[in-house]
Amino acid sequence: MLDILAYAAFFLVTALTYGIICLGLNVQWGQTGLFNVGVAGFVAIGAYVSALLTTPETAGRFGGFGLPVWFGWIAAMVVSGAAAALIGAITLRLRADYLAITTFGIAIAIQLVALNAETLTGGPFGIGFIPRAFGGLEDRPIIFNLANLAMVGTVTALLYYALERLVRSPWGRVLRAIREDEAAALSLGKNANLFRIQAFALGSAIMGLAGAVQAHFIGFIAPENYISTLTFQVWAMLIIGGSGNNRGALLGAVLVWGLWSVTGAMLAAFVPGEYQARAAALQIVLIGVALAALLVLRPRGLLGEEKMISRFLKG
Amino acid sequence: MTKTILAIDGLAAGYEPGAPIVRGVSLAVAEGEIVTILGPNGAGKSTFIKAIAGLVPKFAGGVTLDGRDITRSPAHLLARQGLGFVPQTENVFTLMSITDNLRLAADILPRPERAEKIDAMLTLFPDLARQHQLAAGRLSGGQRQMLAVARALISGPRILMLDEASAGLSPKLVGQVFAKLAEIRHTGITIVMVEQNAKAALALADRAIILVEGRTAHAGKSADIASDPVIRELYLGVAPAKGAA
Amino acid sequence: MNLQFIADGLIMGALIGLGAIGVTLTYSILRFANFAHGEFLAWGTYFTLALASGFGAMFGGSGTIGALSFGWPVLLAGILAALLTGLLALVLDRILFAKLRERGNAIVMVMASFGASMALRSLLEFFFTSEPAYFSRDIQIASPLGLGIRLTPDQVFLLGLTLVIVIVMERFMALSPTGRAMRAVSENPVLARVSGVDVDHVIRATWMIGGALACAAGVMLGITVQIRPFMGFDLLLPLFAAAILGGIGSVPGAVIGGLIVGVAEASAVQIVGADYRAAIAFLILIAVLLVKPSGLFGART
Question: Which 8-state DSSP code applies to residue B132?
Fold first, then answer.
């Protein structure tokens, strides 16, 4: 019973970190209509930056400054956001799909650095001994997981609240106007681009935060955590939950991560060892088909855009 | 009475079914005639002609061309069914040579006829023949308009429709383009043209209809409309005549 | 100085160019960046592999042609597989892209192509596992061509084949009615329709050509390197870089862009080693977007 509680807390912490990534993606796609294929890259930047700053000094690797975790989180946001602002400044003035191609490229470039720049990133083995939040409770998994859940839950809630405020602010209204009305975007001219860059940087900063939170929960990171499958999962979460809707982003994260974990557990339990890699490929096929089908059949996802819902509830 | 070649009956059209821009316009065009469609900005002139050409959804009413119902014909089949259309802007392929612009439109003809029709157009428009390998994007405004007309004519249409062929051209060039249209009409092709330049259009056309807010406000012979001071002032944006306008 | 890397780069560049033709045509005619294009390379190669081993089993032997490492089973299988890959692209369009096209949101099509790419690639992993496969395990002897350059018979054949395909494609786009219609839709779809072009026909032709050329590129990659489910996905960034460098919509541009990317990658390997090879395409992409977003031969951005 307690094991289940510990696992539930562990599951929710992981799902919520995906939820935070989804909230970041929702700022970019849901609010502003920017297509980011490099989600994994921005999450990786956050994770590596925070890990470098907070780990104890390590021989043969740059970094290990032993700084506090909260400092790592903030640095993760700043660096991810700055990288996104740079990419945005280059591509957002061009056709919309150039952003998609460029972000796809930056995720590959970051993956290469993570794999090969061993003195910076630890290479294929990644970085271990990342200070964990509530690390002192590690030997009591239930309390450790629940404490982390409380913390990550609080971060998610704060972020959710801040983003909801932002959506309703004049800034949020401008973003929607740019997304929905080409004429409005044109009348803003260069300013429209500035707004797009801001939204793109903010979204990526949130992804960077999620990367740092994840890194400090798990305690180690490696390049293979940040391949395109991650980008793909996060997109599926947002589209299934309902893009443009922050609650949808969180709901999608919990649902898709739940589906992923359950199918993964079933594969491990019922599929013989030599077929497991093949069966795992089917997991991705399943989500890919679900994503495509949803785009065709129900593009608004489970929860549509916020406005629709509030009108519906108010009846 | 000559026979009706193009009949439009109660046409409603626009981009959203709930908000039609053209709201029940009827028009019968006789063979060999030139009809111009006039009206203030936003009256739905352009939407009207684009709907006939299959580029804007129709919500109600019907269109027949020489007795054949073309209401639901997709745009690319209309060229084969005898309707040529010259859009207002971007009406030539700027990256393609003059010859390729014409070849593209000739590709719907049976293979043996193509070269002959292209030659015929280059004869009709000697300006184009002189530089037929030039990319159309490098032509001047007037030459572009000529190429656009040649492109629409190449498949041998019964009726030629033009959306503001005079837009952006100098008065001298408008004169040249309209003179060419008069020449084309003498080959037996019927012309329907949307125009902003009411004075020049009325001088060329046999008849005119004036659209206001998506409906027919006036219809009649060009000469009668041109000489009606009320219509001129109300709908054509021409100040009351102080001497000859 | 050993110039071998230039020859290697040209071979890689030739197949990147072949693949980029499909990317540039889809981008200019269907108006979206197709992230599933890499999967056409991979699927085409596995189609060829499956058909070739089928032919080999049916008729016995895998007789090689001359000095090449492969024989008629692979060539015949490649031609059939090119058709199948075109059909795969058509089916994907019918069940996915056509429906989204009606709604007119290009970026949703990019996203759908991203989802389709993951699903298609994972299906290959399911059927064939992620273990690499080969058309032939024979080691070929490379003959010296002077200047320290050595090429295997396979490489010479593939370079020649690319040259033929590119010339045929260029002539097709310039002279055939379908090629003209494709150029017309790429520049101005509304005017194309008014001129009598059946846009659906053009879309079908675009997918068939893009799929078939992707298959050719994939088979070349399979012959010169190896066959893996990720082979197309790993080449996607170079394909995009080549298409944008050459100028969207330009067939010769895509091929020249491919050759530049290929040679640049090979040169970079000489200088900084193979670890960062995959980043070269990204750097080229960024440079083009900064300096000349319309590319070398492109008419628009």
Answer: T
Which residues, other chains included, contact A290 with Cβ-Cβ below 8 Å and sequence gap of 6+? Answer: A236, A240
Prediction ipTM score: 0.92
Cα distance from N-terminal residue to C-terminal residue, chain A: 42
Domain that holds residue C258: 4-291
Best mutation target among B47, B56, B70, B76 (most C Cβ atoms within 10 Å) is B76
Which DSSP letter does residue C27 get? I
Q: How confident is the model at residue A278 (pLDDT cuts 50, 70, 90)?
A: confident
Identify the three-state secondary structure at position B67: coil
Residue C299 falls within a domain, yes or no? no
| pTM: predicted TM-score of the whole model, two decimal places | 0.90
CA–CA separation, B79 vs B107, rounded Å?
11
Instruction: Give chain B's domain count.
Output: 1
In this structure, the strands spanning B58-65 and B4-13 are antiparallel
* Cα B101 from Cα B154, distance rounded (Å): 10
The pLDDT of residue A307 is 53
Q: Do A100 and C276 touch (CB under 8 A)?
A: no
What is the domain partition of chain A in residue ranges?
Answer: 2-226
d(CA C292, CA C301): 9
Domain range for residue B104?
A: 4-235
| Strands B83-86 and B68-69, sheet pairing | unpaired
d(C-alpha C121, C-alpha C118), whole Å: 5
Q: Is residue C160 part of a domain?
A: yes
- Total Cβ atoms within 10 A of residue B120: 16
First vs last Cα of chain B: how many Å apart? 33
pLDDT tens track for B53-104: 999 999 999 999 999 999 999 999 999 999 999 999 899 999 999 999 999 9
Chain C residues in contact with B161 by the CB 8 A cut-off are none
Q: Which of C99, C114, C301 is opposite residue A296, by nearest beta carbon?
A: C99
HSE-up (13 A, CA, CB side) for residue C254: 30
Alpha-carbon distance A266 to A276, whole Å? Answer: 10
Cα atoms in the 13 Å half-sphere on the side-chain side of C131: 9
Helix H or strand E segment including B113: helix B111-124
Number of Cβ atoms within 10 Å of the Cβ of A164: 14
Split into its structural domains, chain C has a count of 1
Residues contacting C247, CB < 8 A, separation 6+: C24, C253, C257, C294, C295, C296, C297, C298, C299
Q: Let me know if residue C276 belongs to a domain.
A: yes
What's CA C37's distance to the chain center, in Å?
8
Is C77 inside any structural domain?
A: yes
Which of A90, A95, A292 comes nearest C112 by C-beta?
A292
